[in-house]
Design goal:
Layout lengths: L3 H4 L6 E7 L3 H9 L50 E11 L8 E16 L2 E14 L2 E13 L31 H9 L3 H9 L6 H6 L1 H7 L6
């Protein structure tokens, strides 16, 4: 039973995080994406969406929840469903975030709603994030997080839809034969880009790692939230 009225008591709660927008995360992500960007330096504008590399939460291991995120019941409501996933975001880029300057992010729980789907109960939590540089409002973001129950072990796993075969942009990166990168990729059988970008954002979800390593697939292939 989902006590939605209790969970809605978290609506309006907020937290603030401060961060110095360093150049290293942007340079690391550019290298991960194999981009030919010039080196990012103090004074440069942070590319759109790359603020996700900053304001990262840190908590003790003993304060972790089932999925590796901070245990619920603090800033986010204690939803009694273990699978946490990112459902979507809406963003407005109002002004550039400057590398080398301090910024702060204000996060607020906007709404908590309960729905029922084919897989059971679903709880949606919408959080607003506002990024400021001094008094300048740089980014406005709404993030939707969905919580679900664990899959029934007695129900066969549905076949996922095939990935699209067409796209607006694609690029194939082939490492040099027998290079260290090629050998490592062959040995581990992983696509490096999703894992590297997740590590840069300290993402604890296992969805992307589970696609790469068979032993992780049985843990929780659906949990992923930024």
């Amino acid at each position: 039973m989902i006590d939605i009225k209790h969970l809605q008591d978290w609506q309006g709660r907020g937290e603030t995080r401060d961060d110095l927008i360093a150049a290293f995360p942007a340079n690391a992500l550019a290298a991960t994406l194999d981009r030919d960007d010039k080196e990012y330096r103090i004074g440069d504008a942070l590319p759109p969406l790359w603020h996700w590399l900053h304001f990262l939460p840190i908590h003790k291991l003993g304060e972790s929840g089932y999925d590796g995120h901070a245990a619920l019941g603090g800033f986010l409501p204690p939803v009694p469903l273990p699978r946490r996933m990112w459902a979507g975001s809406r963003l407005e880029f109002l002004a550039p975030v400057t590398i080398g300057r301090s910024a702060h992010k204000r996060s607020t729980v906007k709404s908590v709603t309960h729905k029922s789907g084919r897989s059971g109960d679903l709880v949606f939590v919408t959080v607003t994030h506002d990024v400021y540089e001094d008094q300048k409002h740089c980014i406005r973001e709404e993030q939707d997080i969905v919580y679900r129950a664990l899959p029934d072990p007695n129900v066969p796993t549905p076949t996922p839809p095939h990935a699209p075969t067409s796209c607006d942009f694609s690029r194939k990166i082939v490492p040099e034969p027998r290079s260290p990168v090629s050998l490592l990729r062959t040995y581990l059988q992983w696509p490096p880009h999703p894992l590297r970008s997740s590590l840069l954002r300290r993402n604890r979800g296992l969805r992307r790692i589970g696609r790469a390593w068979p032993f992780a697939r049985n843990l929780d292939a659906g949990s992923f939230a930024p």
